[in-house]
From TrEMBL:
It comes from Salmo trutta (Brown trout). Pfam families: Motile_Sperm (PF00635). Signal peptide: none annotated. This is Vesicle-associated membrane protein-associated protein A. The lineage of its organism: Eukaryota, Metazoa, Chordata, Craniata, Vertebrata. The chain crosses the membrane at residues 236-255. PROSITE patterns: MSP (PS50202). GO terms for molecular function: FFAT motif binding. Keywords: Acetylation, Cell junction, Cell membrane, Coiled coil, Disulfide bond, Endoplasmic reticulum, Membrane, Phosphoprotein, Tight junction, Transmembrane, Transmembrane helix. Residues 186-213 have a biased composition (Basic and acidic residues). It is found in: Cell junction, Tight junction; Cell membrane; Endoplasmic reticulum membrane. GO terms for cellular component: bicellular tight junction; endoplasmic reticulum membrane; plasma membrane. Residues 134-170, 186-228 are annotated as: Disordered. Belongs to the VAMP-associated protein (VAP) (TC 9.B.17) family. One of its GO terms (biological process) is neuron projection development.
Length: 259
């Protein structure tokens, strides 16, 4: 027996497109329509269950009814050079007249009674034109809110925040100006103190050098005077010594002759 053709009508029929950037959850919708006069059970499967969240992933569609399924792609690092190999499969089966539990029904279903459709996942990055259009749409959405606030508050309400902000800016500028002046005055004082310290250091070095020079001169003069005194003393004592020696010799010779 040949396999049954899918009774459900899928929209989109073959591709599930996800539009980046993929830094956040990207959601696309899949519509399942039951054009028959019987209730149909469905189940959605994927080759990458950790990358997608499907709500609802199973259920029953009444005759002539349509169910919208949300397929949510989790954030990931997208590589444009890598082709997507993810696929989805929608299985369906006609619901029995007196079904009790879907799990039991799927477990007991015969392979020949199953119908399925496969879809591949396609990742699209937004083009430059799409980005510009998104920005324009976002600005269009914000504009009415701004206009409505102006109409509700009136000119006085819109002018008040500007006055407050302007006064705050003036006060901040004044504080900064005063702080700059104070810092400049402190810098001037520190510069003057530094100059005075340098001058004091120069004077102290000069005084030390002068005192060292005077000390060396005094030492030299005292040593020269002491040497001259010693020479004079030596010169003065030399004749006396000669006289004493001569007296000794004379006394020795005279004593010898007498004896």
């Amino acid at each position: 027996m040949s396999k049954l053709e899918q009774v459900l009508v899928l929209d989109p029929p073959s591709d599930l497109r996800f539009k980046g950037p993929f830094t956040d959850v990207v959601t696309t919708n899949l519509k399942l329509k039951n054009p028959s006069d019987r209730r149909v059970c469905f189940k959605v499967k994927t080759t990458a269950p950790r990358r997608y969240c499907v709500r609802p992933n199973s259920g029953i569609i009444d005759a002539g009814a349509t169910v919208t399924i949300s397929v949510m792609l989790q954030p990931f690092d997208y590589d444009p050079n890598e082709k997507s190999k993810h696929k989805f499969m929608v299985q369906s089966i006609f619901a029995p007249p007196n079904e009790s539990e879907l799990d039991v029904m799927w477990k007991d279903a015969k392979p020949d009674d199953l119908m399925d459709s496969k879809l591949r996942c396609v990742f699209d990055l937004p083009s430059e034109n799409d980005r510009v259009n998104d920005v324009e749409r976002s600005s269009d959405v914000v504009a009415p809110v701004q206009n409505s606030s102006k109409a509700a508050d009136g000119p006085v309400a819109t002018a008040a925040p500007k006055t407050v902000s302007a006064s705050m800016d003036d006060s901040e500028i004044k504080k900064l100006t005063q702080e700059c002046k104070r810092l400049q005055a402190e810098m001037g004082k520190l510069t003057e103190e530094n100059r005075q310290l340098k001058d004091d250091g120069v004077r102290m070095r000069r005084a030390a050098q002068h005192s060292d020079h005077l000390t060396s001169n005094q030492t030299g003069s005292s040593s020269s005077s002491s040497s001259s005194v010693m020479q004079h003393t030596t010169a003065a004592s030399l004749p006396s010594l000669l006289v004493v020696i001569a007296a000794i010799f004379i006394g020795f010779f005279m004593g010898k002759f007498v004896l």
